[in-house]
Amino acid sequence: MEVIKKIFNEKRSLLVPVVSIVLGLLIGAIAMLAGGYNPILAYSSLFNRVIGSSYHMGETIRAITPLIFTGLAVAFAFRTGLFNIGVEGQFVMGMTGATLVGVLLDLPWYIHGPLAVITGAIFGGIWAGIVGYLKAKRGVNEVISSIMLNWTALYLANFIVSKFLTDPGQQKSRAIHESALMNIEWLVQLMDKARIHWGTFVALACVLIFYVILWRTKQGYELRAVGHNPDAALYAGMNVNRTIVKSMMISGVFAGLGGVFEVLGVFGNQTIMAASPGYGFDGIAVALLGGNTPVGVLLASILFGGLSYGSAGMSFGAGVPQEIIRIVIGSVIFFVAAHGIVKFILKPFMSKRAKRKEAA
Amino acid sequence: MWIPGDDECMDQSGAVVELKGITKRFPGLVANDSINFELKKGEVHALLGENGAGKSTLMNILFGLYQPDEGEIWINGEQTVIDGASKAIELGIGMVHQHFKLVQPFTVTENIVLGNEPKKGLKIDYKLANEKVKTISERYGLKVDPQMRVQDITVGMQQRVEILKTLYRGAEIVIFDEPTAVLTVQEIEELIEIIRNLAAEGKSIIIITHKLKEVMALANTVTVIRRGKVIRTVSTSETSERQLAELMVGRDVNFQVEKTKRPPGDIVLSVEGLQMKGDQGKMVLDGTSFKVRSGEIFGIAGVDGNGQSELIYAITGMRKVQDGQVSLNGNDITNDTPRKISTAGVGHIPEDRHKHGLVLDFKLSENMILNTYFKPEYGKSGLIDEKAMDSVTTRLVEEFDVRTSGIYTHARALSGGNQQKAIIARELNKDPDLIIAVQPTRGLDIGAIEFVHKRLMDARNEGKAVLLVSFELDELYALSDRIEVMYEGKLVGEVDADQRDDERLGLLMAGNTDHDGERS
């Protein structure tokens, strides 16, 4: 019951997000019409791609999974009053940690896999912990330090991969040993080789863990107190600085896990990246859409991941170019995030309905 | 001389405001229940009632912010509909809000003319504006420098800017919403003078308040409101503070808590030569020393900003001191962590209940364990034992009569008095040896003040040591066994707690030394 209430807190009903999505799709349709494309065809190809075949369904789930992790990471920090814009870097460090263990070590599967996962999670946690430490001890604004660390993470990862993990002339690391991979072979076969992996289940578990940590433990009580009112937390004898570091580390672990499963579950290697993968930044939008609640993040990830994956269908099926697809996604997010606007639009309908009730 | 209740003058000029049968309903409550109210020209009319009695609602109706569900508004003998603040201003009604609505980086003049600027071509004519502001401020004795920036002037002066704003817009009727809540003793005196001037110049004044002293000092007439209804309208010359209090609360009120003489016990808190550096490098505590014994209330008087807050931060461990010693029951607790000090037996009712005392977005039950949640009785495994949390909350809500719709209500939704009751319940429940209470009744109404005072006195009678910091002299005298005055970071002299001497107290608070009355 509590969980369900949490979804709808911030005085939001289910109606507002649904209307937001519809409004976003409408604006997107207008953009497509203006560009001379058929929006009905485009949207039907979008849905076709998302739920059309078992392969596409599996791949949609694959696209959703990292967003759950990064969305949870941003939301968790936010609950403690921190804006972790460095999820991107922590994600990359998670990838790197997992790749290091996956490529360099050769162990039995029951040790190798878990070790790679844990190493990646710790890499992400430490990377975020640096941001927390700088804020707690030196008062460095977490937004600035984490943006800087995003770049550091990208180039550090590229350096590690090219220096230690790559054969000469290659642009990606050697393959991760079979024993460390996290894909679920029988499900992969079942879904026409869609890349299904254990990360999805870990992500769902993290949704639950997120909730339990924050609302059921003493640690979470502290984290929330610091997030709502650091002065009262100090008065209550909490160690505000230590809480900031802890919160960032937990947030970084979520982010790192996202990266871990991208390499262990999806690609099986790590490329030398020209730019970071972007899941971390998408995570900010996901957390915002989800109202920083665990279930909200899950739902927002499904929406966001579905739209991103399905958008390729719009370009195949209706020839809509990538730019216009971004407009569609952007306007959906805009309306969900700016739910004040939606409420404003809904207001006349609501009051009319109320009046009618009164009259009746 | 200014005579309260100059009847002759009033009869000639008649009523400028008449509210007839005003009713305003909100979901679940009737805020105003067929209220009749009459304001005569040149009078000061107090609207007296407890928090939530409906006085602010009534004035918001008069100022056009709410529309009444029933009733009529007559201004200067004509029935009108006031459908917005601009209409109210047009009718010559001005309101000085409790929370000022000023643009901090703007100058006084810029704030006053905002939205109504005298123009020269396309530009604002600041010269004319400054002159206008100056003329008005001199006429009513409002000492304001029009060129100063609002962020650089005192709270009292900001309020005068708000008054000027209404006068600049041609207000003949000025509503003051809890005008003294944010002022120091001296500023209150000045405000009283200003309001008298305004009335003498023919302005009609309404004051919303729950402070009886001010009503008696300022108003000609007082209308008492309780639970949305007018209880009575009387002339101040025909009533007394006691009678007004009874009308307001609806029952007999104990102004004075019973203070029986009792011999103090052992020393509980000892503070020796505390030194603390402030943010600007100035010493905010400069050799503060005192002792508090069990079974006594030790009061610290003084003007706000003389190191009282810092002293409490130092004792409770919220800020570090550079030198000096704090001991509790003979154990050194100097610069210990707040948690260590709290568990050693210190209960703290903080000065700012929203900043320190409560997490407003937490449930009431979560707030009740704010500084004890880590103890094993609230869960041993790292999980919070919600049953234990809820049962403690239920018990304390009952015992301390915290009025709330439930223990899961967010602290934000409680009234100020009930928030304070919750904090007191939590702190006393720790069974501390020392209770620190800073401004414990700020912003509370009579009923709640009575409650807080009684609880503090009970604690003293049970043998607790109580350290009371307050800017309200009445409160200090009502409760304290001993009173010392704090000035610029140290205690400068003791006054007799049984023999009230405001003059001596005033001198000490202004920094005159104890011995010869010379400025130190």
Automatic annotation (TrEMBL), chain A:
One MF term in the entry's GO annotations: transmembrane transporter activity
Membrane topology: Multi-pass membrane protein
CDD domains: TM_PBP1_transp_TpRbsC_like
Transmembrane intervals: 14-40, 60-79, 91-111, 117-136, 143-161, 196-214, 248-266, 272-290, 297-318, 324-346
InterPro entries: ABC_transp_permease
Major subcellular location class: membrane
GO terms for cellular component: plasma membrane
Subcellular location: Cell membrane
Record has Lipid metabolism as a keyword: no
Keywords assigned: Cell membrane, Membrane, Transmembrane, Transmembrane helix
Pfam families linked: BPD_transp_2 (PF02653)
Protein name: ABC transporter permease
Protein species of origin: Paenibacillus paeoniae
